[in-house]
Amino acid sequence: MELILALAIGVLTGSGVWLLLRPRTFQVIMGLSLLSYAVNLFIFSMGRLGLAIDKEPVLQPGVPQDLLHYADPMPQALTLTAIVIGFAMTALFLVVLLASRGMAGTDHVDGSRAKDAQEMP
Amino acid sequence: MQTGFTASLTASLMPHLILAPIALPLLTAGLMLLLREERQRTKVTLNITSTFLGLVVAVLLLVQAKDPSLPGGLGVYLPGNWPAPFGIVLAIDRLSAMMLVLTSTVALATVLFSAARWHRAGVHFHPLFQFQLMGLAGAFLTADLFNLFVFFEIMLAASYGLLLHGSGRPRVSAGLHYIAINLAASSLFLIGVSMLYGITGTLNMADLAQAVAGVAPADRGLLHAAAAVLAVAFLIKAAVWPLNFWLVPAYSAATAPVGALFALMTKVGVYSVLRLWTLLFGAEAGESAQFGSLWLIGGGMLTMAFGAIGMLGSQRLGHLAGYSAILSSGTLLAAVGFGQNLLTAGLLYYLLSSTLAVSALFLLADLIDRWRNDGSNLAPYEQTDDAPFLSADLVPREGMNLDDQEEALIGQVIPAAAAFLGLAFMACTLVIAGLPPLPGFVGKFAMIHALLNPLGLGASAGFHLGAAGWTLVALLVGSGLLALLALTRAGIRHFWAAHDRASPKLLVLEGLPIALLLVACAALVWQAGAVMRYTQATADALHAPSTYMRAVMTATPVPNPPHTHAPAPQGATPP
User: A17 is in which domain, residue-wise?
Assistant: First the structure.
């Protein structure tokens, strides 16, 4: 399981970074989404009780109250927050992407493919 | 009887005052969202009132933090009434209080400035402004890493909206880059935070600081990696080279009040680095003490050089202001990296003065640009950035009146508005370049003095400053010179060159905020002794983090009130 999770995080991060560095806005937003998935999985894997598959994060009646039988609730709470914030930010980025597409008439991240329209000072 | 009741009410509410810098903007923004967009006047009034109240609260908190009866000037508040490592903690010490006052001052100036015209450039300016203030205040007050992330996101989400305020192609284009890099930085932030949690099992900054010294040797490399990943996220906010190419296009494309407010955002990055680095990797961190010091020094110095060269190379005033923000942030980071008590005191003083001046410069740049574009007589060199000083338009024509011995100039008066702009620009130049008599000089002098005499005057005999120290001294002086050149050149071009343009039309509401910021700068010089004593006490507390740790960790929750006729609940209990 560790191997699968590690591979998943690695593949998602790798593709995310690759897409993030591409010149078109849609590729960038896909890259950012993949990157945030990778980060969410990574937060999960950082639980203090290992991956803790099929275990509850909150106390359950009938389950012995020791660390062997529970998952660390903290990373789950963190991931939840991170998902919400990441989702909102991606939606916002999508709006800006569309505005940029509408104003510049191109989906290049700099708003232009021509070399004379550099925005940098 | 009445006064006794008021006094007891005040006494029972005072511990909750620490919550006000976060709750006040939140409530104001929520209220403003309920108002329709046509009721701009009400929103402006609300925004100004709330920002002013925020300043009052911040000053009250500052006075409280100065109180010597509190250990290290610390007030700890447990919002969920859970003891420290389990619940969220807000903590205010001298550094937080100082940053809050600075934030509120700049915010008041920018909101006044925006009330003149910029707030009408788009919708929801006022709520976004208040949310931004909430995020900033929360980032300064929180003592919990994940909470810091949340407040960063609030601050950033509001800043995305503010940056796009007014719309237009440059803003959308710069906004796209700004959002992309900040989303990537947020991912790094989360990776760093979760790694730290995985290693130490806590997210409370004080608890984390206690755990650092006892981390197993096998995990130490991982701890350093986590701290470095987290630091990269902060350094992107603090605009360290080479992670700062987004800053100048974004800040100069933003509307003027937003640009001025954003001058604070780089300081949040610096604040976070200063706070966490002194806590986690101070002298008490065992093997990890001073981890990453050279990276901070090196990165800060490169940023200084980049900022100074960028200032020299930029023609537009907005770009000049953006690069001066980078310069100031680089100076702060390099000085933080040395981890010396006296140097930290100097850099905190410099932080105050440079933030005020950079904000004022953003506001001024807008007024000057508008003055320049007022008539239709925009010279071709003013529309592009291509070497304007080589333009034929600027070479004096034969017989043109540039000489005071010729008659026609006699009796020409400088219009009051132009004189105000010119003098304000000059004051900003003096602060940013670090020339006397304004506070930029005092701050730089204090830093150089601390570098040469790290143990205080007379106690540092036989001390030899290393190569890094001498480089920083050279950069402090050299970057000041380059900034002076760049700003003087811009000043000559805008105020002294012969133009046939009308005198600028200046509203009082636009002059007032700039005057406010510059008066604050002047007050920093006037009260330099008191301010330096305060920053020195702040630096002392920062470099002895055990007081902070103990205060946060021993904060006790309030006992539940008995169910029968409960007395007014007490809030924070300072240890």
Answer: 2-58+66-110
